[in-house]
């Protein structure tokens, strides 16, 4: 039941992100010299399954102003990594904060609960999930 509730909440969140991202793009079109501040950020993931990584990458790409440019596969000691092109973030920290918020919401939907902290390795993620 919680996954269903988190799923509805995630769809609403993505819908809102699409609306606000579109509004940001349109607003910045009419501000001289302030259209974009492009950057590429490296995002180590807490997502470990192919479904989670694909859904997260798709969610980022569907949101106006962001685009997944590359995915680095994870290993037994390192999590997968996304490289995300962001147009309208003020700093790398603010970009990562928004992306980790989106990832937490996605993981709450797929796992039934949000992760408590950012994991730096696949082993930490598996331990967090209760896997041996």
Please explain how this structure is put together:
A hairpin with an 8-residue loop joins strand 2 (66-72) and strand 3 (81-86). The chain is globular and about 45 Å long. The chain is of the alpha+beta class. The chain has four helices and three strands. Strands 1-3-2 form a three-stranded antiparallel β-sheet, with helices on one face. It is found in: Cell membrane. It is a multi-pass membrane protein. Its main location: membrane.
Q: How is the topology of this model organized?
A:
Layout: H1 2-29, E1 39-44, H2 50-62, E2 66-72, E3 81-86, H3 92-111, H4 122-129
Antiparallel strand pairs: 1-3, 2-3
Helix pairs in contact: 1-3, 2-3
Short account of what is shown:
The protein is an alpha+beta fold. It is built from four helices and three strands.
List keywords for this structure.
single chain, alpha+beta, 3 strands
Name the helix and strand elements from N-terminus to C-terminus, one letter apiece.
HEHEEHH
- The number of helical elements comes to 4
What percent of residues are in strands? 5-15%
Distance between the termini: 26 Å
Number of domains: 1
Shape: globular
> Strand tally, please?
3
Mean pLDDT: 83
- Write down the Rg: 15 Å
What's the arrangement of strands in the largest beta sheet?
A: 1-3-2
Largest sheet: 3 strands, antiparallel
SS content category:
alpha+beta
Helix content: 40-55%
* Low-pLDDT sequence parts: 119-127
Membrane topology: Multi-pass membrane protein
Transmembrane segments: 6-30
Family: Belongs to the CPA3 antiporters (TC 2.A.63) subunit E family.
Keywords: Cell membrane, Membrane, Transmembrane, Transmembrane helix
């Amino acid at each position: 039941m919680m996954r269903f509730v988190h799923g509805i909440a995630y769809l609403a969140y993505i819908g809102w992100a699409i609306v606000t991202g579109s509004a940001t793009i349109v607003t910045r079109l009419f501000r001289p010299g302030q259209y974009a501040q492009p950057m590429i950020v490296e995002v180590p993931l807490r997502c470990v399954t192919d479904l989670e990584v694909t859904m997260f990458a798709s969610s980022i790409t569907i949101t106006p102003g962001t685009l997944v440019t590359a995915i680095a596969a994870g290993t037994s000691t390192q999590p997968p990594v996304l490289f995300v092109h962001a147009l309208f973030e003020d700093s790398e920290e603010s970009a990562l904060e928004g992306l980790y918020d989106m990832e937490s919401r996605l993981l709450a939907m797929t796992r039934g609960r949000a992760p408590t902290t950012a994991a730096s390795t696949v082993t930490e993620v598996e331990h967090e999930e209760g896997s041996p």
